[in-house]
Amino acid sequence: MPSTDLVFQRDGHVSTIQATVRAVKPVASLEEANRSLFKQAKEDDQIVVTDSTIFHPQGGGQPPDVGVMKNETGAAFEVLMVRMNVVTQGEVLHFGRFAVASVTFRPEEIVTQTIDTDRRLLYSRYHTAGHVLGAAVNHLLSDKVDNFDELKASHFPDSAACEFQGLIEGKWKDEIQQKVDEYVAKDMPVEIDWWDDEDFKTNGLERLLPDRKAMGMSDGEKFRVVKIVGAETYPCGGTHVNSTLQCGKTAVKKISRSKGISRVGYHLP
User: Fold this and answer.
1) Are 226 and 131 in contact (CB under 8 A)?
2) For the whole model, what pTM was predicted?
3) Is residue 256 scored above 80 in pLDDT?
């Protein structure tokens, strides 16, 4: 079965689309590896698979979108969690429940997907702010911290942080905050682009080149990248705001260190 078309990767500001239902099935019928993604599932909870989706699945440090799907006859499915299928490459699983358990969707039926736009905006602000923080730390400390490298990040509102290889001392917190404030105030545009291997090499970012095979991508398929114009470019599949100013005040929190890894927390109002 073809991969689910991830509409949000081309336009993260669209809030509703129409999609075709491919399957509706109870969570209990999933393979064990997929069932384990939905530990909160109840007996009547369902999975809906569509040909395309506006819902960002949990992953890449970003929480999942929530919202609703409806058909023309009034059946409504509340989307409570979204994950990538870990068995079938590229398929998105929408987890939730129907308003009336006996009134569901049929395969090949057209449904309207609508996300919670307030939640999407919050997650997009956090994701862009995480990139801003990463860029700020990189510009300040890449030549000052032994074995420095950017590792991974969490953009969940209650645990937002960026991790770096190398020991970042607490004395850098104020300077990191100043650099983050500078980037936010500059109202830097945030742009989406698609790069091939040569683009990474041309821009001196070979170290960021993702593992194509691990991502289940074909040889000719391009990688999605997010550019903070004037700062950094990162491979990224998440949603973002249009400029750094839209992140709002980004407060740098505690810097913690463990086993050669430094974690810099951040928070938005």
Assistant:
1) yes
2) 0.94
3) yes
Q: Where are the beta strands (DSSP E) in 158-214?
A: 161-165, 190-195
C-alpha distances (whole Å) from 90 to each of 6, 20, 84, 159, 268 are: 9, 16, 7, 27, 32
Reading the block at residue 184, the tokens are 């936010």
Q: What is the per-residue pLDDT across 158-188, written as a single tens digit (0 to 9) for each?
A: 999 999 999 999 999 999 999 999 999 999 9
Mean pLDDT of 54-81: 97
Mean pLDDT of 133-149: 96
The answer to whether the CB of 136 falls within 8 A of the CB of 119 is no
Burial class of residue 245, CB neighbours in 10 A (0-12, 13-18, 19+): middle
In sequence order, the 6+-apart residues with CB closer than 8 A to the CB of 80 are: 66, 95, 96, 97
Q: Which of 76, 80, 51, 77 shows the shortest CA–CA distance to 65?
A: 80
In the block, residue with structure tokens 């996300």: 115
